[in-house]
Structure formats: structure tokens, C-alpha cells
Amino acid sequence: MDSDYGIPRELSDLQKIRSLYQPELPPCLQGTTVRVEFGDATTTADPTDALTVCRAFPNTYGHPLAHFLRATAKVPDAQIITEFPPIRVGIVFCGRQSPGGHNVIWGIHNALKIHNPNSVLLGFLGGSEGLFAQKTLEITDDILSTYKNQGGYDLLGRTKDQIRTTEQVNAALAACNNLKLDGLVIIGGVTSNTDAAQLAETFVVAKCPTKVVGVPVTLNGDLKNQFVETNVGFDTICKVNSQLISNVCTDALSAEKYYYFIRLMGRKASHVALECTLQSHPNMVILGEEVAASKLTLSEIAKQITDAIQARAEQDKYHGVILLPEGLIESIPEVYALLKEIHGLLRQGVEVDKISSQLTPWASALFEFLPPFIRRQLLLYPESDDSAQLSQIETEKLLAYLVEVEINKRLKEGTYKGKKFNAICHFFGYQARGSLPSKFDCDYAYVLGHICYHILAAGLNGYMATLTNLKNPVNKWKCGAAPIASMMTVKRWSPNPGATSIGKPAIHPATVDLRGKAYELLRQKAQSFLMDDIYRNPGPLQFDGPGADAKVITLSVEDQDYMGRIKKLQEYLEQVRTIVKPGCPQEVLKAALSVMASVTEVLAAMSTSYTNTLASL
Amino acid sequence: MPVCVSSSAPSKVLDPEVAVNKEEYQVFEELGRGRFGTVFHCFQHRGLRLHQNGGLGEEIAKLFPNLFGQPSAALVLSDSHVPPVNQKLKISVVLSGGQAPGGHNVISGIFDLAEGSTLYGFRGGPAGIKKCKYVELTSDYIYPYRNQGGFDMIRSGRDKIETPEQFKQAEETVQKLDLEGLVVIGGDDSNTNACLLAEHFNFGIILFL
């Protein structure tokens, strides 16, 4: 079985052309000399989480931001790395395959060999299980040649997406020690990078010299925070899905008699659904975050959709396209609670066919209300990140069924007088996940791979490679690294009212920000999308021409470049420190004190206000 | 006699020697000046009533007495420089059956060639013929659909025209619009229906595409 990894492949003409594409590097990474500038110590987004995270990660929390600059950058105190001894690096695919993952490996391999041809990159075969079993493949140019700019994870494969239990962590530690690794690069999403942070902490305590580095690769787009703007794979998934969705829209408009319910892969959060809606303009999208915020029930969601269908029917329209994120089912509070009970019973070892009789009365009532096909799917064992098997739960069929029931009810009551409701259901997940990566994802992943090398060269542990200013061309991208612990939050949740429960720190999936610009854009257009059929076909994934450099809309509309702004702020503070020195004129000192006092007061008030806002949610 | 033209040209007509051999063909009308010269509708003199399968042929001949046995037709280059006839026709198109990528370009092609003529599109497929729901196709109307997918330019439908009442409805529509031709764009069922229409109407040109 191991011989199936990394084998040369027969490529189509397009794949061959793509394998020859050479991504560009930002100026700061070109050449063999890179400066590292360290910013201030980092903290968590929510100040109240800081203490908990610090306690859990005493050795890796609070470390400074790292910025990678070109050698000629005029920055005092920057550290220039000029010596590059040969190093041994392990790399492992954790998390589900995501278009562009192969280019991370290519990027780090390229950087390693440029700086010292004697450095070695070992790929762990079969993901985390390969790490535990110490099964490796040395990465070479020959091996990489048919995997550059290609989709999937079949160069190395993946298995269980977890490095968490004591046994697993110990196996990883043994592997790194035995293989004498200077660095371990973990490619994955929120769960994998949480595990990476824990591993980094464990290695410090165990005095293992291996540095752990995380890379934000996940098609879900949910590893998103002040340091990470988007994820490798998200761009591709949204573009491919948007073309499929818009083809369905054209089909709906041509026949004028079907409603299409399309569920999109993307785990718990609705980033993929939101982005695809903004790209393809379907009639409706139900975001999991809206459902959770409004605490909608299944019946209320079905009613919402039926109201929309009725509004269109009154304009003699009997077709439409409705998007659903796969995480929607878990965002419905009543279903979420039902799933929690089921998963609890499953973990106790209760047999599947006996679970329904052991549910609480209200959960049992909801369970009986659901159609048989959904019941079977809700009984599936949860994923390794403790969520339901979202890809296998056919929420689109459930909602189509409930909508049909509602319409039939209105027909009898006489409140609905339109034509018959016809629904066709789709799940778009695996089709897009296996795509050739987009030009953006090829570039982004390759550059992240290079940054991994520089993190290791700088001797950093428990850091994630980051790139900011991504909505601009590659030559404007800013390269850096941030401690993974600073991206963590602490979820406080307890099934029993009154009981105090402090959760374990982790990188939790970022939800769609209902106060963000992308969501605001959706709200502005929602009514027009619903009624006017302004479907938009962005076409297939393009590698040349006007579509090749398109960026996802949620990236373009947001004000990002958090890292760049932190750096800018530091520069201003440094200027103030330079201008206001002992011996400066009295007027200058007074002005500085006055301004700084005002700024500090405003920031303190904002910080307090932010905390209170979070507390009230 | 009604005239039917097939879009699938007999391969032998592509032979240049045959193409310029006028004796084999009777010139019916010139369609206009194409890229390679004047384009004619040409027909073989010999009919196709002699059928290999006598039985089946006889059955079809009974059902389609006006259409059966007509010669196949092909467009060929003309070596003459006769100026094109300034013909102004009233033609309509209908998208029938399930949508297929490229259907819009059939309409664009007709529109581009039928310069000076009036081109209508029936909305919603054959149902549009029955209910006389149509739109006049203009350059502006067609523009957003060039090279685009779907059948949403004039929509589509699966209705059939087969009962006497339905034929009457269709006939009223054709008379109202004073049509000289109808283009049916679709698959096997649609073209069967087109053949029925052609037999029923003793008029103009019907193209099966």
C-alpha cells in the first residue's frame, strides 16, 4: 500500500501545463537572505481567554509576531539569518484534502534546497498514522514533478486527522526523536492546528528539539482570525462550486419548474455557502449562523423557504435555487441538542437500534417527527472533531420534504394558489474538493511552504505560517508567522444550568461574522437575488485570462492585513519614541502626552465595550 | 409542395465534382451570399420513393403523404455571381424538450443569416405555439445569450401538439403571424412533432435541427 504514495502519474495535457506553472514569490522571500523582525508579544482576541490559554500553553503562549522582510529592508533590530545549516524536516497532511496542499510541500522543499542542498524533507505516508508509524518518503524534485499545482492529497495521503491522545502524542514525539527532525510541519485546518499547538508545547516540555509549524490549509475557510485572512483550498472550492451552482441556475431558468436545493461542503461554518452565493447569485441561502443567532427551528426554516417560494409563485415563477451549508443541521438548536444526546449514547456504547428508546421525551418526539432517512443519518458516529458527519446528513432532502409538506398544507387552506412544487436535491462536496487548485491557491500554498522554512530557520516553535494583504497581487503580500496559541479561544458551555465549566483552549472554527462586510453585502442583495433571477455564471476555474486572477469576494470586501497594520502601529510608536526623547521641547512633550492619553482612553473604552458585547451574546 | 431541408448533408455532396455538377440538382432559391460565395438550396431530381424496406416505407408514406419521398437537400457553393435575392421572410423558432448547451447559438445563427427578415421566438416551447406567446427577436434581445448555456432566451417546454384542437391552435398562431417558416430545435420527440406539423401545414419551409 505504501508504494501507492508519491508515484509518477500520467497527466492530461492541462495537468501537464499546470505542473509547469511556477508561482511567484513575494520580494521579501526572494534570494537567500531574509530578515526576521519580531513584533510585540501576542495575546488572544478576547482578553478574558488569555489567562486560560496561558495556563494551558505556558511555553508557547505570548510569543511575538514574526515578520519576514527582504534583506535590504531598513528596519532596526531586525535579525538577519545568513547561516543555513542542513536541517531535517517532516511534513504531514492532517485534515481533509484541500486543493493546493501539494504546493505547500513543493514550497518548503524548494526553500530547503535553495538554502542548503543537503537539507532533507520527509513526507509522512498516510497522514498522522504515518507519523505515528514513522513511515516516510523523502521528497525529491522527481517525485514532486507530477504533483506540482495538482489537486488532492495523494502524494502522501491522509488517514485519521488527529494528534491528540496521550498515545498519539507520544508516538509523534518518538517519531521526531528517532528521525532526528529539526522541524515538523502540520498541514490542516482548525483541529489539526490546535493539535499542532499542543504538540509544540509538549515537545518543549519533553525537551525535544523538533519545532512544530502549522499551515492554514482547509477548504472550509473557517481557520480565519486576525492573523489568517483565508485558507488554502477555499478559493478553489468556491470557484468550482459557483460554476456548478450557476449551471443549475441556468437550468432552472430554462425549464422554469424545479426548485434545486443544493447543500455545500464546508463543515460547521457557512463561509463556502456565503462566498458561493455572492459569486453565483442563487435565489436564496440559509446561513447556519443566522439560524443559530435567531434560534430557528426546523419548521421555522421550512416556513421561511416556503414564504420565499410563495412570493415567487405570485409572480408566476416556479423555479429557483436554494443553497444550504452542510453545517446548517447542527446550527438548529433543537437538532443540535438531539445530536448531542445521540452522540452521548453512542459513546456510551449503546447500540444504534436501541438509541431512540433512550432519548429524553422531547428529543424522542423530534426524532419521531423526522423522516426515516434522516433518522438513520443522525445516528452515524461523530467525526474526529466531535461534530456530526455533516457530509452524510441530507439536510437538503429534509428541507425539501418539509417545504413540500408546508405547501400542501397551504394548498388545502387555500393560502397557496400556485402550481405544484417540484424539488431536486444536490450535495456539492467531493466534486469540488478534488479539483485542480486555482492559481491563487497554487500561489498561496507555495509561498506558505517557503514561509515554513523561514519559521524553522528562525528557530520558532508552535507558529503558523501567515500571509496578509492577500487581496493584492503577490508582490504586495506580507509574509509572517504568528503563535498558534494566540489564535485560540475558550468556549464556555455546560449542559447543566448553573454549573461552571471552563472549556479547553482550541482554535474554534470562525463563524460567518454577521456584522462583517461580506454578510452585509449579502443582506443588501438578498431581496434582488430572491425575486429578480440575476443568476451569474463565473465559468469554470480559469488559469489564464480575466478570470485567472479573480479573488474570492469575502476576501476582497474585507479590510484585512491585520499583520501589516500591527507593524504600521509599531512604526508609529517607534517614531513617537524617537521624537519625544528627554531634552525635547516642552511643547512637543505636552502634545505627545495629550494625544497618547486620548488614544489610550479610547482604546481602553473600546476594549471594555468589546468584552461586554461578547459577554452579552 | 412543402419543402423539408435536413441539416445533415449527404456526404457525397461534399465532393467538389458533384457539387458543381448542376445537372444533378435543381436550383430552388438562393439564400444569400455566404463566406464562400452565393449559397443555394439545391435538390436532387430523383425522389426517394423507392424504399429498401417496402413495408415500413409504405406505412410512413401513408402517414406522411405530402412529405414522404422528398429528395434530400444540401447547401453547396455556387460558382455564379448572381446577386442575392432580397428575400424578407417571417420565421419563428421554438426550443422544445430538455435544454442543451448550444441551443442559443442555433437561434443566433438563424438570426444572423436572416437579415432583413422577421424572426420570432415562441416562449416556453410548443406551449408558446399553441397559445401564441412569442417575442420578436432583435439584435439587442439576442446579444446576452450568444454563446451562453441554457434555453432561457425563450424558455423551453415538453408540450406536444397532437390533438386536432392543438393543431387548430397552432394553425391560428401561424396564420396570425403570417409565418413562412418554423424552426423546431430539439431531440427525437420534438422532431417527430415537427414532422407532424409539417405534414399538417401546407405551407413554407420547416427546418429540423
Describe this structure in words.
- Chain B: Its cofactor is Mg(2+).
- Chain B: Keywords: Cytoplasm, Glycolysis, Kinase, Magnesium, Metal-binding, Transferase.
- Chain B: GO terms for molecular function: 6-phosphofructokinase activity; diphosphate-fructose-6-phosphate 1-phosphotransferase activity; metal ion binding.
- The complex is a heterodimer of chains A (617) and B (209).
- Chain A is α/β, with parallel strands linked by helices and 617 residues long.
- Helices cover 44% and strands 12% of the residues of chain A.
- Chain A folds into four domains: 25-231 and 436-493, Rossmann fold (3-Layer(aba) Sandwich); 233-325 and 392-432 and 512-555, Phosphofructokinase domain (Rossmann fold), CATH 3.40.50.460; 327-387, Arc Repressor Mutant, subunit A; 560-613, no CATH class.
- A ten-stranded mixed β-sheet of chain A has the order 3-1-2-14-13-8-7-4-5-6, sandwiched between helices. Chain A has a four-stranded parallel β-sheet with strand order 10-11-9-12, sandwiched between helices.
- The model of chain A is unreliable at 496-501 (pLDDT under 50).
- With 209 residues, chain B is of the alpha/beta class.
- Chain B folds into two domains: 5-37 and 84-208, Rossmann fold; 40-80, no CATH class.
- Chain B is built from seven helices and nine strands; from the N terminus they run E-H-E-E-H-E-E-H-E-H-E-H-H-E-H-E.
- Chain B is globular, with a radius of gyration of 18 Å.
- In chain B, 29% of the residues are buried.
- The chains are: A alpha/beta (617), B alpha/beta (209).
